[in-house]
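Re: your question from the hallway

Yes, I did run it. Sequences:
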Amino acid sequence: MIITNNLTKKYGDFTALDQLELSVKEGDIYCLLGANGAGKTTTINLLLGFIQPTSGSAFINQLKVEENPLETKRFLAYIPENLMLYPSLSAVENLDYFSGIGGKSLNKSQLEGFLEEAGLQSGAFHKRIESFSKGMRQKVGIAIALAKDAKVLLLDEPTSGLDPKASNEFGHLLQKLRGKGVATLMATHDLFRAKEVATHIGIMKDGHLKQQFVASDISLSQLEKTYLETMDYKTLVS
Amino acid sequence: MFRYNFKYESIALLRSKWIQILIVILLLLFGFATYNGQQKTFKRQADIIEANAEIADADRDMLKLLDSVEQGFQVSASSWTIPNAPMAVGNYHPRLASMPPSDLSFLATGQSDMFTHFVKPTASGDDLALNFTEMTSPVQLLFGSFDIAFVVIFLLPLLIIAFSYDVLSSERESGSLRLLAAQPISLYKWLFQKLGLRFFWVAVIMTLSLTLVFLLNQVAIGSNFAAFMGFLAITLAYALFWFALAFAVNLWVGSSGKNAVALLGLWVVFVLLIPAVLNQLGGTLYPMPSRGLMINDMRAIKAEATQRQDEILDNYLRDHPEYAVNDTTQKRSFWHRYMASQQLVKKELEPILIRYERQLEKQQLLLNRFTWVSPAIVVQGSLNQMAGNGNKSYKSYREQVIAFAQEWRNHFLPMLYNNQEFRSENYAQLPKFTFQRPTYQSQSSALFVVLCSALIVLGIGALRFRIYSKKEQSLVNQ
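Structure:
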């Protein structure tokens, strides 16, 4: 579903991403860990086509992103760190708008069904987004992905700023999407949540993918230790 | 995409307090401008009615006096003013040559702030005394009255700027653009549609407001349909031009702050700077001859003519033997000499006046040649014209008044030189002035210029699409 081949992005002399080789299959949740500036968001921007690669290529559902910028977006959903929807529109209206402009016309019960599936309380369906918490907005974002029937989900720090309950609920939603065969790539700082939801974990540093492993093969403490060692946080490890 | 953009953009606009305030401001401005324009029109109408009433009163008194004279009574009035003398009637009982406001006068004050709408040409007065040579550049009036034209030309662009400066940048700054850009849509089409929808709603509000304005002013839209549609079309084309500018700036500039500054800068350039520069340029390239010197020249010519009045009268009568033949008394008074010299003075003044007029024409020509540079000038000229207060209307009025002044003079000259008395029965034959309003002229060329400007600006916006066609998503990170 998501494949990158030698994906590289340079800004002048600075290399933001260096020869990334990545593969996220159907039903996988791949968590990219790394400090700020490691190249996580650059990877997501390249997969979205927001920026052009210096070399290498990215594929979504076997389509090269660079050559098919609109077509690849039919298969993917994206939830940024701060999901900004239209504040003066309600959750149902936002969902209807984003589905509609993407080419999917849904009726009221379908829209409400997706919001319910995403875990939003029914009392909030017709309330304006301006009164929503970040967690509630993320749920609307998941509903947009569900409504779109996205094959690929790109998440950029989706749990940062969420309280533990909301973060836990979000994790459950990702598992639900995994069950539907969605390939998820999530950039995060949250080691605990990554260990909880991921099938695969990668650690990035300075634009390089330094480590990657199957999540079930590693414990949370091992993950933390490996992460800190990769980041050269020696004093903390000792 | 269009259906959803239309539906939710409309809902979002209706719910936006900022937009609601803008709409209320627009309606208030229209209301106030209509009231203001109406007051000016009423005053103009009232002034003409008052002047007509004064003339009617004076005529009544004159006829009474004339009747007494004709019955052989002694009257207590200066001999100069007794109306049995044709020149007394020609000079002290002139007719009113007025230009009443048109049905649409309230829309654009235009030149009406500068010129009088009624004059009383006298038999002995010269055309210059009618004060028509004061006409300077019409762009000077761009800073004029608070009327509908002012709202359309000056304030509507500011409201459009407030309405559209951040259409793209606010989405980028709030982060929703990233979510939009993750959908399988063209951001250019999306932006074009979004601004198009805002233009649509502005057009709806403008159409309703203008219809209301016409109805409130009791202007029959049916009989003024061409003018109403012309007014609406040129106003909407002008609004389109500003939306096109907003489209280009949103694509080419960047942050909301920069967009706002850029659009306000363009407003200053198109609405203030270019008209002012053209105005100044006209005056600098084709300066008007000194009015003081012209008056001195005129005085010198008149003084010379006064000294040579007897000789001038002889020459005049030689040129007009019909007066000499018909008059057996050969009695010659002040007026005989004065009127004969007036003809000569008029001839000698002609080159001076022509020089004055030519400079004015050159200024006008320069302005006409460059009006396309600023749609604001084109629209102002067009609205003035439609309201009947433009250059063409005043030029026509002036020509009609000068022709009438000549007719008035010519009416009394044979009576004067044939030494005939003015009698009560001659009153009905006095020439009367009726202003023939120039027929409504289609403003299609002005509309064409404004639409072309809008298309050029849209093209400049679209150029970004052409240059960055493979980097459309770069708009997200601009």
